[in-house]
TrEMBL record:
Name of this protein: Vitamin B12-dependent ribonucleotide reductase
Domain Ribonucleotide reductase large subunit C-terminal span(s) in chain numbering: 166-701
NCBIfam families, A to Z: NrdJ_Z, PRK06556.1
Names of required cofactors: adenosylcob(III)alamin
Gene: nrdA
Region annotation Disordered: where it falls in the sequence: 1-32, 890-911
Catalytic activity: a 2'-deoxyribonucleoside 5'-diphosphate + [thioredoxin]-disulfide + H2O = a ribonucleoside 5'-diphosphate + [thioredoxin]-dithiol
GO molecular function ontology, one term from the record: nucleotide binding
Length: 955
């Protein structure tokens, strides 16, 4: 920070009370609040049908109960999942005590009434009647899931805890040991509260510079080790979610190459340790020995550097203390190292410094040097941001047009509430509190964009889709800044405005100009852009007279937990994850459903109900729309998703971000996913195009680039050199035929509904020697091919080819049918052959060999999840075929219909991501939830658990 804001002797409450008294002396100066959603004389709760529910949340892996609260009260239209998440995450008070909240009414009242009281105390409302309307409108919108505050509001507001309302923090560190140690302390306090923070380490001298004492500086990378260890310790010490942090380094720092390669080197270490037998999976007991895993890393690049990359020119790395050139490097070579490191481990991302600061409203106070962990909040050092997100699908009318008028009024109301919260909020450090109260940075955003576009038959990666998204974003930010200008006329502009008035006005004009020159495609986006233009013009007119109340207004956050609490199909700016979803049912259990936006989109495209029914049935079975009956190929793109058969191309994500960026104060939390086959050059192109298209920040993730996968790779023995022999000896294999009578084992199986039988015969003393696979109708081509395949495998086994050789070749082979099986030990198969050879490995290979290949039984996997040694539950005793035969009853009377076998819990999906894995027949590259064990799904650049609402970063 280059400016000291406020005085340390002033408390937030003290300043607020003085301001309130001053405003109270001018009656009629407050805001008039209009009713939009509520009816005068009727409380919002009276219009809702309430019901009691039991919330019992279990660990998906072992069935243990994580959380239980019975008799909670929610509206009847809230989903079970939203009920579970809000009850377990946001209700305050010890479970089982009278003080524990048990109704959504109590939760909303606790928050909304606090906002109303603070608004009245600080002079926001023209009259008590306006304050009441404010309370009722806010209550109605929250109860009907039209928007949500970020999680800290629900955690803290109205409780005895500090009234922390912000999820995002930016810290500052200088080139001194006192400052570095203070950085560790401040991060620890923020992580302890479950929030995340980011900072730029570029002020710290490089390892190539001297200390005043004569020694050589350690450099920022060395200090990152201590901070990483601290974050890991606090995470494991019982925080509600993993520590989330961002570390930024300027591209001209002399240690930038070491910084770039830091996490990639650690990834190599993880692979080596994994191959040596250590548990290096995410959450494994040995992963803690690896460094730098608790932070996202980003390089701050300048336009000068990017132009040098384009021109293949030299670029100077400069000393931190003097600014002198320490070293000159090839810009393209460094850019290549950045892309290569990102290819290997997804870090570092890029932050485009000149673009960020060109849209900065407070340059006279200081530059923007860093971001929060998810890169959407970009502002001054030692500051924080209060977030809230609108549920866009709630504003889509039955005729598929966007309700501009109600959206405008709703944004006004929510933005007003967000600003009020700063009046009473507490902050983790004094410096952050001073800066936030002086600049009042807010971050209104939205969720469900992907669902809105699909419902209106817009492809996510299309000009029409981008135009609608950009228009809504411009309208949201335009309304927010117009309301900010109105608030400045009522309760005054932010403290730092006078110093930055010219710059702030310039940025407002840039936003307005971007709206006026935006590319329109259809009547709907043109209508919304026109409404947004009117808001920008009105906001500029008021702001040039009164100033603005807030230095920042909008950004697009991940909306992980709150997105689930609002029953959103998609989070933040993301497209839909997949067309088939996992839905929890009342009373427990779950079911697979096709997204409800799919039928609506098909109706919008003109399909008849009979056609829609057939297409939905096809999607439910296949997970995608390709070759769906009656669906025209030109409509496939409307149903493209983030994952699956037709996944959106990487540049489709980048272009969407570029369309929205000019209409946001901050940036966009989003990771551009690339397929495993992507090259380093592909990543270079994404990063280069991000700069050219005017993004502020960009991160990528290449599938399977991280080690934490469910299967471990085989450790290969090194080749051994041999001396050239003088005499060549030719060895020929000898067939060892099976005896006339041999023990065998027959297993019935089902892979994605395709049923078959596997018979494996053994030598009496020496393992498997014969395999027969029955699949398809007798006489069919498939049955014939399987017979021939079985003979070929059987003959090879008798000639001495080891079973493990076939297991290595055929496991993970991918083709249809693929998906869920009825075998509790092999829950998902990539193909029939994948299942067959996994089953054979489990039946005939020793445990040590199977464990090396990552093939375990269900009890062995469960033991591994519990942190136990899976070897303690396995058995390698030979199968007693005689006992098996004698245990099977022989039916001597008329057979009665056999009951349907119960599906083992282990064959079911626990989340939409696991359901997608079942449909695709492959493992999605997402971590398991540390709270409940369910596989998480992407939410911006973080992950969110659909089971319990936990996130891997800031929410």
């Amino acid at each position: 920070m280059t400016e000291a804001v406020g005085t340390s002797s002033d408390s937030a409450a003290g300043r607020g009370q003085r301001g309130a008294k001053k405003k109270d002396q001018r009656p009629g100066k407050g805001l008039r609040i209009e009713r939009v959603w509520t009816t005068e004389g009727v409380h919002p709760y009276e219009e809702i049908t309430w019901e009691r529910r039991d919330v019992v949340m279990t660990n998906w892996r072992d069935g243990s109960v994580n959380f239980e609260q019975r008799g909670v009260e929610f509206p009847d239209f809230w989903s079970i999942n939203a009920t579970n998440i809000v009850t377990s995450k946001y209700f305050r008070g010890a479970v089982g005590t009278p003080e524990r909240e048990w109704s959504l009414k109590q939760l909303i009242n606790r928050v909304v009434k606090t906002y109303r009281v603070a608004g009245e105390q600080h002079g926001y409302f023209a009259s008590p009647a306006d304050a009441e309307v404010f309370e009722h409108e806010l209550t109605w919108m929250l109860a009907h899931q039209y928007f949500s505050f970020n999680s800290p509001v629900w955690f803290n507001v109205g409780t005895s805890s500090p009234q922390q309302v912000s999820a995002c923090f930016i810290l500052s560190v200088d080139d001194s040991m006192d400052s570095i140690l203070n950085w560790y302390r401040e991060e620890g306090l923020i992580f302890k509260g479950g929030s995340g923070a980011g900072l730029n380490l570029s002020r710290i001298r490089s390892s190539k510079e001297l200390l005043t004492s004569g020694g050589t500086a350690s450099g920022p990378v060395s200090f990152m080790r201590g901070a990483d260890a601290s974050a890991g310790t606090i995470k494991s010490g019982g925080a509600t979610r993993r520590a989330a942090k961002m570390v930024v380094l300027d591209v001209d720092h002399p240690d930038v190459e070491e910084f770039v390669e830091t996490k990639a080197r650690e990834e190599d270490k993880i692979r080596a340790l994994r191959d040596a037998g250590f548990d290096m999976d995410l959450g494994g007991k040995d992963i803690t020995s690896v460094q730098y895993q608790n932070a996202n890393n980003s390089v701050r690049v300048t336009d000068e550097f990017m132009r040098a990359v384009e021109g293949d020119e030299e670029f100077a790395l400069r000393a931190r203390t003097t600014g002198e050139v320490v070293e000159t490097i090839k810009a393209r070579q460094l850019f290549g190292k950045i892309a290569k490191a990102a290819w290997e481990c997804a870090d570092p991302g890029l932050q485009y410094d000149d673009t960020i600061n060109d849209w900065h409203t407070n340059p006279e106070t200081g530059r923007i040097t860093a971001s929060n962990p998810c890169s959407e909040y970009l502002s001054l050092d030692n500051s924080s941001c209060n977030l809230a997100s609108m549920n866009l699908m709630k504003f889509l009318r039955d005729d598929n047009t966007f309700d501009v008028a109600k959206f405008v009024k709703s944004v006004e109301l929510v933005f007003t509430a967000m600003d009020i919260s700063i009046c009473f909020a507490d902050f983790p450090t004094e410096a952050i509190g001073d800066t936030t109260r002086a600049y009042r940075q807010l971050g209104i955003g939205y969720a469900n964009l992907g669902a809105l576009l699909m419902a209106t038959a817009h492809a996510y990666d299309s000009d029409g889709g981008r135009a609608v998204a950009a228009a809504i974003t411009s309208l949201m930010t335009g309304v927010s800044y117009r309301r900010s200008a109105e608030l400045a006329g009522v309760v005054g502009p932010y403290d730092g405005y006078a110093r930055n008035a010219s710059a702030h006005t310039r940025v407002m004009r840039k936003h307005a100009a971007a709206n006026d020159t935006a590319h329109t495609v259809g009547a709907e986006d043109r209508r919304i852009f026109e409404a947004a233009g009117a808001e920008w013009r009105k906001g500029l007119e008021i702001g040039e007279k009164s100033g603005w109340r807030n230095a920042q207004a909008s950004l697009l956050a991940p909306t992980g937990t709150i997105g689930l609490a609002m029953d959103c199909d998609t989070t933040g700016v993301e497209p839909d994850l997949a067309l088939v979803k996992f839905k929890k049912l009342v009373g427990g259990g779950s079911m697979q459903i096709v997204n409800q936006t799919v039928p609506r989109a098909l109706r919008r495209l003109g399909y008849q109900e009979e056609q829609i029914e057939a297409i939905v049935e096809y999607i439910a079975e296949h997970g995608h729309v390709v070759d769906a009956p009656g669906l025209r190929p030109e409509h496939y793109e409307v149903f493209d998703c983030a994952m699956g058969e037709r996944s959106i191309r990487p540049m489709g994500h980048v272009r969407m971000m570029a369309a929205l960026q000019p209409f946001l104060s901050g940036a966009i939390s989003k990771t551009v996913n690339l397929p495993e086959s992507a090259t380093v050059a592909d990543i270079e192109d994404v990063y280069l195009q991000g700069w050219k298209l005017g993004l502020k920040a960009l991160a990528i993730y290449r599938d399977n680039c991280k080690v934490g996968q469910p299967l471990s790779a085989k450790k290969k023995a090194p080749e051994q050199a041999t001396e050239q022999v003088k005499e060549v000896v030719e060895y020929r294999p000898v067939r060892k035929r099976m005896p006339k009578s041999r023990p065998s084992r027959t297993t019935s199986f089902s892979v994605a509904g395709a049923k078959g039988y596997l018979t494996a015969s053994s030598y009496p003393d020496d393992g498997i020697g014969e395999v027969f696979l029955k699949l398809g109708k007798q006489g069919s081509t498939l049955a014939g091919v399987m017979d021939a395949f079985s003979v070929a495998i059987s003959v090879a086994l008798q000639y001495g080819v080891p079973l493990e050789t076939y297991v290595e070749k055929f496991v993970n082979m991918r083709f249809e049918p693929a998906g869920m099986t009825d075998d509790p030990d092999v829950r998902i198969a990539a193909s029939v052959l994948d299942y067959v050879f996994r089953r054979l490995a489990l039946d005939f290979l020793p445990f040590e060999r199977r464990a090396e290949m990552g093939i375990l039984t269900n009890p062995e996997r469960a033991a591994e999840v519990r942190g136990e040694d899976p070897a303690s539950v396995h058995t390698d005793e030979p199968v007693d075929f005689a006992a098996m035969a004698s245990s099977a009853p022989v039916a001597r009377r008329r057979a009665e219909p056999a009951p349907e076998p119960a599906v083992a819990p282990s064959t079911q999906a626990g989340s939409s991501t696991e359901l997608l894995e079942a449909v695709q027949g492959k493992a999605a590259d997402a971590p398991l939830c540390f709270t409940c064990g369910t596989k998480m799904r992407p939410a911006g650049s973080c992950y969110v658990c659909e089971g319990c609402g936990s996130t891997s970063g800031c929410s």
